Every structure is written in C-alpha cells, then in structure tokens.
Amino acid sequence: MIVEPKVEEYAEAHSTPDGELFERLAAETREKTTSPQMMVGLLEGRFLGVLVRTLHARRVLELGTFTGYSSISMALALPSGGRVITCDVNEETTAIARRYAEEAGVLDRIDYRLGPGLETIAKLDGPFDLVFIDADKENYLNYYEATLPLLGVGGLMVVDNTLWSGRIVDAGDDDKTTNAIRVLNDRVLADARVENVLLTVRDGMNLVWRA
Questions:
Q1: What is the reported pTM?
Q2: How far is C-alpha 178 from the chain's CA centre?
Q3: Of the four listed, 95, 124, 156, 183, which is most buried by Cβ atoms within 10 Å?
Q4: Separation of alpha carbons 48 and 27, rounded Å
Q5: Distance in angstroms (rounded) separating the CA atoms of residues 177 and 199
Q6: C-alpha to C-alpha distance for 95 and 101, rounded to whole angstroms
C-alpha cells in the first residue's frame, strides 16, 4: 500500500466503525478468497458512502462486486428508491455479497449482474450519478470509455487502485497491469471531456467528472 500501515491503522481507528456485520464480511473474505486485498475496507467504504450522500446519488454503477463491501456501503447511503447495479464474473464471491447484503437489509437496493463487465455495460441505460470501477485492470481504459457516456450531469466516476501500490511511478516496472493503469491515468488527464483529481487514498482513487 502507498500509505504507511501504522498511519492507515490510525486513520481507521479514528473513523466511525462500520460495525460487526462488516467485520464478519472482512473476516470471511480473508478466509475464503485468494485475494482479500481486493476488498475496499473501512476507509474506502466510508468514503464511497460519503460520496453517495454528498451527490444525493440515486443510481450507482459498480464494476467489480467481489464480496460486497463497497456495494453494501454505497447501498446503505442511498436515499429511498436508490439503486446500485453491481457487476462481476465470479458467482462464489457474488453469493457472499448477496448474503451479507440481505443481512444488512439492502438486498432490494442492489441489482447483481453476472457476466463480463463490458457486455453488461452495453445493455445499460444512463444516466448514473456515481460510477465505481474496481474490476480487472487490463480493461480499465475500456471500462472508462464505456461508462463515461452513461455518467450523468453532475455525476462522478471513481476508479480504484490507480496508484497500484506506488508501482505506477516506477519507470522500470513494465508489468502489464501497471501499464494498463498508466494508460488509463494518462487518458483521463488528456481527455478534454473531463476533469479529475488523483487521490492518494489507500491504493489511489482517480475521481473524474465532466468538464
């Protein structure tokens, strides 16, 4: 991670707890998945919830459900009648997400879509108030281009992991995933349709809105 662990621990300790349900979700994610670091966790989950409330978002699109920490965090912050559409290809982790969403009382606010993200996006109509991209990094540019036309006026796109543990600034790192994230960040900066700010929150979050 790009933040010193003790600093992140302090930040978590001085943020409103998510509660026992999220603690169990995090524990099960660590126990049953091979990449538990994909889970957003308390700080990012809280941040996403704040964005939903601040934007008064009613329609949210998420690419990358995983075990549901982020979709549940956002669904809890929705106004009455609001909805999260969340996409993933993994049935097992999506089943975990659905189970905890039901327990949290937000299952009726979340629409789970199983299948390749780009195929799902092609069937959706905008506008969305918030788009959260946290799926396979090699497709980040494709997800960006596919979802930007669906972003509503005054809406916000959040692309996760855009500093990639700091590897993004290592000129000697020619890894395919690192390069895919670099391409996305460069494209966003050069895109006259949008403005953005790349935040050093957890593993980097690129916030994008229409210019």
A1: 0.95
A2: 18
A3: 156
A4: 21
A5: 19
A6: 10
CA pair distance 29, 181, nearest whole angstrom: 25
Whether 201 has a pLDDT exceeding 90, the answer reads no
Question: What is the Cα Rg of the chain in Å?
Answer: 16
Residue 203 exposure: Cα atoms within 13 Å on the Cβ side: 16
Q: Dihedral angle at the C-alpha atoms of 45, 51, 54, 60, nearest 10 degrees?
A: -110
Peptide bond into 17 cis (omega under 30): no
Four-residue CA torsion sign, 85, 86, 90, 91: negative
Tokens 């993004």 found at: 168
pLDDT above 70 (res 131): yes
Identify whether the C-beta of residue 107 lies closer than 8 Å to the C-beta of residue 39.
Answer: no
Task: For residue 207, give every residue at least 6 positions away whose Cβ sits within 8 Å of its Cβ, in sequence order, or none.
Answer: 156, 157, 158, 196, 197, 198, 199
| Domains defined along the chain, listed by start | 5-210 (3.40.50.150)
